[in-house]
């Protein structure tokens, strides 16, 4: 009989343990971390301790994740307050980019509004087609030139289409970039990037 068959039998017949209670008390098994043997109850205690450690690790990870989220939410709040302190379109764009560096430590950011800087047909179509931010490891279409001499050194990008509410047509594009290839990557979550895009869009609508 194979060990799997024994395990399957015991799982299907729990009454076996009641009928052989003394055997369980006398049973000894190898210690998982040494050469000696221990009782079944001791092995169960070790298993429980290992599970407790695993749960403590998961809890610590969740707490850390919650702290990171709270810190990020606080930055989004500070960013929102800074945006609505601008008084004209020029200062609004300047505040948008500058505070991305100061609050979020984004090393490079540019904003293009179609009203002032009409983009290529490809860029406008790209912005219209994506309701949510897009992250990539290379510049999309002809946007690398937007960063001037720094463009050739950038290794990750986040594209935030700007639009009025649920309007299908975009009115601009905010692009974040970094020399760090892991700063923005295709699989990353974009919830907070979306909040930034919506906040910037709302702040700019007054001047468009």
Highlighted features:
Beta-Lactamase; two-stranded antiparallel ribbon; alpha+beta; 4-stranded antiparallel sheet
Number of E-state strands = 6
Number of discrete helical segments: 7
Structural class: alpha+beta
What is the level-2 CATH architecture name of the largest domain? 2-Layer Sandwich
User: Which ranges are low-confidence, i.e. pLDDT below 50, for 5 or more consecutive residues?
Assistant: none
Helix content: 40-55%
Gross morphology = elongated
Strand order of the largest sheet: 3-6-5-4
Protein described:
- With 208 residues, the chain is α+β, with helices and mostly antiparallel strands.
- It folds into two domains: 3-50, no CATH class; 84-207, Beta-Lactamase, CATH 3.30.450.40.
- It is built from seven helices and six strands, in the order H-H-H-E-E-H-H-E-H-E-E-E-H.
- The chain has helices at 3-12, 15-19, 21-26, 40-83, 89-104, 121-129, 191-204; strands at residues 28-30, 37-39, 108-113, 134-136, 156-163, 170-178.
- The strands form two sheets. It has a four-stranded antiparallel β-sheet. Strands 1-2 form a two-stranded antiparallel sheet.
- A hairpin with a 6-residue loop joins strand 5 (156-163) and strand 6 (170-178).
- The radius of gyration is 29 Å and the shape is elongated.
Concise overview:
The chain has 208 residues and is of the alpha+beta class. It is built from 7 helices and 6 strands, in the order αααββααβαβββα.
């Amino acid at each position: 009989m194979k060990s799997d068959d024994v395990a399957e039998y015991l799982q299907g017949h729990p009454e076996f343990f009641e009928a052989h209670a003394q055997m369980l008390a006398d049973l000894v098994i190898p210690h998982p971390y040494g050469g000696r043997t221990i009782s079944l109850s001791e092995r169960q205690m070790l298993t429980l301790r290992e599970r407790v450690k695993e749960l403590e690790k998961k809890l610590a990870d969740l707490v850390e994740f919650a702290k990171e989220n709270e810190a990020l939410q606080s930055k989004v709040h500070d960013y929102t307050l800074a945006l609505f302190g601008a008084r004209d379109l020029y200062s609004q764009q300047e505040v948008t980019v500058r505070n991305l560096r100061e609050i979020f430590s984004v090393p490079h950011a540019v904003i293009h509004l179609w009203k002032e800087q009409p983009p290529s047909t490809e860029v406008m179509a790209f912005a219209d087609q994506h309701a949510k931010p897009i992250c990539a490891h290379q510049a999309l279409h002809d946007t690398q030139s937007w960063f001037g001499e720094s463009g050739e050194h950038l290794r990750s990008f986040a594209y935030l289409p700007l639009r009025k509410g649920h309007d299908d047509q975009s009115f601009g594009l905010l692009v974040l970039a970094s020399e760090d290839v892991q700063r923005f990557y295709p699989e990353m979550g974009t919830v907070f990037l979306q909040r930034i895009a919506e906040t910037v869009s709302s702040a700019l609508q007054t001047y468009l």
